Amino acid sequence: MKHAKINSHFYDECKKVREAVGGIKNIELINRCSTRIRIKVIDITKLNLNKLEGSKIFVKTLLKDDFVQLIVNENIDEVFLNLLKSLKISYEEIPNDFEVRVNKEGNFFKVVTDGISVIVKPLIPLLITMAIVATLSNVFNGIDFGSGTLSETGQFAKAVGEMFDILQKALNLAFSIMIPWSIFKLMKGSQAIGISIGIVLCFHDLISTNDIMSGEYGDIFKWFGDASFLESGYPWKISYVGQILPIVAMSFIAVYIERFANKFDIPVFKEMVAIPMITISTFFIGILLVGPLGLLLTYGMNEGVVWATTDNVAKYIFNPILGLALPWLVITGLIQVLVVINLQQFTTFGGTTMMPMFTQLNIAVATSILAVTIINRHNKELKRTAIPSYSLAYVSGSTEPALFGVGLKFVYPVIAASIGATVGIIITTFAGVICTNGNASLLVFLSITTKPEILDKFNIHTIAGGPYLWMAIAIVATFITTFFATIGLSKIKVFKEMNAKVLERDFSVN
């Protein structure tokens, strides 16, 4: 989507759409799949769809309930981008490509999660690279092939493994540094200052949270010692690497410091004093105030989630509940909170308890859409949308096209995915499966870790059979449970009626 270009012809056609639906103020939301753009209008009496007659990019225009549906044969990404531009909506500022709310404000939590999505969006290429490098590093250094890991087979393999390990650590550092850049970019601040703040808060002379939490530098809560206040008693040398929420907070503080500094319109004073003070003041606030508080926040989040997902009793309560909620968290955007926790776990411990759960979620969502496709196998319009979306979920772990394009419309596939994901999560929880930061899809086997030093940090011991066997069993169980749950739910009267209504409304050509 981000590679789509502004096209003058498409833009002119999209302006006609804006006029035909009664203007921007008459649009509540816009969603899309691989073949259609759907516009939910507030007042259908303001529609004038005759303006779209003879359109060369919209094959057909349909009105179903309060949705105006525009069928597009090709270049739907480009058309959608031009439609957003015609509505004066910035692509960079929308949290979700598949459903854009235009004139309806969300609650506080929705605003927060949307904000996280917008901040992370420019960093997605970096996150993808991080996942691939973490997977390759695990293949060389973490997977025991029977006679040891690949890096133990020879000097060349050892060198390659070390290179991937260094690259992985460097990318973790880059991610923390780029967060301030993304926020400054979003807030129309100086991107150069954003990058410089990321670097100074993550500088190598500062002590990583991992080293502090390991006890190497003493008790985390014993701040005042025999040494002087700023030498070792007060934790002022804390690095922001891996401290995602604290560095987000510092970035916003820095943006507002910059806005305050820009109010001084005295030429020499502004260049020589005001602008340098942005980075200097941000550094001291971050090191002396937010850093120690952020360390406690990061420590508390990591320890709390690790306890909830690995404790002998708590994990059998927390993990299944989370499994039931996961598909709905994706739909509401609250999944972004878990994504942050997952990244913090990985940068702190080298592994994560979230990735096995994300994998079961993505397999369950893909399977539920596969089942819906089979149930409605005679509907070609549905298949055009569903097949690419569930294939993408199986291979890459991206479930938004499947959920927003198909699942949420029918509802019962999302319920089935909740049930199936929970079954798989119970199995991986019981077996003690831990992953690195890889691909939460069928490729997850490349991200499973058996390193004792990582498992010990979670106080986990994988049961007999090994994590690979149990992950395979969990995926099969998730697939079977989700598939038959979807078929079973589709036979219930309320869902059968809903199925017919959705097919008529969203996947018909008349």
Automatic annotation (TrEMBL):
Entry annotation: catalytic residues: C33
Pfam families (alphabetical): PTS_EIIB
Domain PTS EIIC type-1, residue spans: 114-501
Domain PTS EIIB type-1: 11-93
Database matches in InterPro entries: Glu_permease_IIB (IPR036878), PTrfase_EIIB_Cys (IPR018113), PTS_EIIC_1 (IPR013013), PTS_IIB_1 (IPR001996), PTS_Sugar-Specific_Components (IPR050558)
One example of a Gene Ontology biological process annotation: phosphoenolpyruvate-dependent sugar phosphotransferase system
UniProt keywords, alphabetically: Kinase, Membrane, Phosphotransferase system, Sugar transport, Transferase, Transmembrane, Transmembrane helix, Transport
One GO CC term on file: plasma membrane
Coiled coil: none
Gene3D superfamilies, A to Z: Glucose permease domain IIB (3.30.1360.60)
TM spans (from-to): 123-143, 191-207, 238-257, 278-301, 321-343, 355-375, 423-448, 468-489
Superkingdom field: Bacteria
Keyword Kinase (UniProt): yes
Molecular function (Gene Ontology), one example: protein-N(PI)-phosphohistidine-sugar phosphotransferase activity
The name this protein goes by in its record: PTS system, trehalose-specific IIBC component
